[in-house]
Specification:
disordered N terminus, five-stranded antiparallel sheet, 1 helix, mainly beta, eight-stranded antiparallel sheet, 37% strand, 238 residues, disordered C terminus
Length: 238
């Protein structure tokens, strides 16, 4: 075999190997939720001095097109200089996104759900030290024929104050892939449902989310849709 032909074959093998590595890397990262994001989050009631509570959601999730199942990681952080004391994280689903379980947390009864939501869990935290975070595995389903949103309020232990609220923020895609095994969704993206009659989005839920029987008024538009503020939940704590 000539030196020139050997070089050509070697080059082809290197190219093929590189392509294979790229394919395997892409496959391995298919379920990677990426870095956490506080997109759609806002402080509401003033937290105790030295306490700064925030939340994070994955920048992307993947929905199984057959089972509609998806996994989401919800994280609460104390970015302050002092421990938080007793607080709780709520995980709430809207429209096409239904929260089925949150590891270590208690479901909220249907009669106590905020109006407009379809599911919710309450996660009690005895104390979150300064600079620490706690993550929860969220099992959910996503109906790709609808839009879908999730909300993470962080409240005082008695539920009288909401220190932080992320959302309701959407997950979605503008490029549905019904024939693929799974559909990747991005945080902060309105879902474009797969519809047999074209591209028009169905209306999936009320445009405004009232607070319900607690009697507190919905915050103004300047509060970025913080609908849970200053509402004491009626759910039973575990």
């Amino acid at each position: 075999m000539s030196s020139r032909r050997t070089t050509t074959i070697a080059g082809s093998l290197v190219t093929a190997s590189f392509s294979l590595v790229m394919i395997l890397s892409g496959t391995a990262g298919a379920d990677d939720q990426g870095p956490g994001s506080g997109k759609g989050g806002k402080a509401v009631d003033e937290a105790p001095a030295g306490v700064k509570l925030t939340t994070l959601l994955p920048e992307k999730i993947s929905v199984d097109n057959t089972s509609k199942k998806t996994d989401i990681t919800a994280t609460v952080k104390n970015e302050g200089s002092k421990e938080s004391g007793k607080v709780k994280l709520l995980v709430v689903g809207f429209d096409g996104l239904t929260v089925k379980n949150v590891q270590g947390c208690s479901p909220i009864d249907e009669k106590n759900l905020p109006e407009g939501s379809n599911s919710a869990f309450s996660c009690s935290i005895d104390n979150l030290a300064a600079g620490k975070s706690k993550s929860y595995a969220v099992d959910a389903t996503f109906d790709l024929g609808k839009t879908g949103k999730i909300c993470l309020p962080v409240q005082s232990g008695d539920g009288k104050k909401t220190f932080w609220q992320q959302g309701p923020v959407p997950f979605g895609t503008t490029n549905p892939s019904p024939n693929a095994p799974a559909t990747p969704l991005l945080l902060g993206t309105d879902n474009k449902p797969v519809a047999p009659d074209g591209d028009e989005l169905p209306q999936t839920g009320p445009g405004v989310l009232p607070l319900g029987a607690a009697g507190a008024a919905l915050l103004t538009a300047g509060a970025a849709g913080l609908w849970w503020s200053r509402r004491r939940p009626r759910q039973q704590e575990s």
